[in-house]
Specification:
The protein has 171 residues and is mostly helical. It has helices at residues 21-53, 58-64, 66-92, 98-121, 124-155, 165-170. The longest helix has 33 residues, at 21-53.
């Protein structure tokens, strides 16, 4: 033992180094699920257009994969602004459930493109057309994120394993 209270007791850490690994991995899984669910159906339109309009090369692939990139950007922004705020509110009021996340994903996923195109273009027809892939993206994000949040809540419940008394004395 040393007189310095900041000196480590042992070489073993009491906290895991991967505290952010779980939430970041779940966030990226939800982002990937939402991007693919919302962007892949739009590839049905962009792939034939790209092959017919362009001669080939990098421009063709960039145009063909544009729905994936646009969906990824919108999904990321919605997850950061709406999804994490919703998580904080639901966690605060102990109302976290994958059903709630999925339902909010459907609602916000459809509302974002619909309202954006309604405001920008003034036509509700194009808004309805893009509301469907938005709803798919929101559903996938909400489902994946909600299931992970349920697993986190289940892991925080008291287990039947006895605690380590030496750990409890230190902390």
């Amino acid at each position: 033992m040393t007189a310095d209270p900041q000196a480590p007791i042992s070489d073993f850490t009491e906290m895991t180094d991967g505290r952010l690994r779980g939430p970041m991995a779940a966030f990226l899984r939800a982002l990937l699920a939402g991007t693919l669910a919302g962007g892949l159906p739009m590839l049905v339109f962009s792939l034939p257009l790209a092959s017919a309009a362009l001669e080939g090369g990098l421009e063709t692939w960039a145009f063909a994969l544009m729905p994936i990139w646009i969906t990824a950007i919108i999904t990321l922004a919605a997850m950061l602004i709406i999804g994490l705020s919703l998580t904080a509110v639901l966690h605060r009021f102990s109302r976290e459930c994958w059903h709630t996340y999925t339902a909010c994903g459907v609602i916000f996923g459809a509302a974002i493109p619909f309202l954006t195109l309604l405001i920008m273009d003034g036509s509700w027809e194009s808004g309805l057309f893009f509301a469907a892939p938005g709803a798919l993206a929101g559903t996938a994000c909400g489902f994946v994120w909600g299931r992970w949040r349920r697993a986190v809540a289940a892991a925080k419940t008291p287990s039947d394993h006895p605690t380590n008394p030496y750990h409890d004395m230190i902390y």
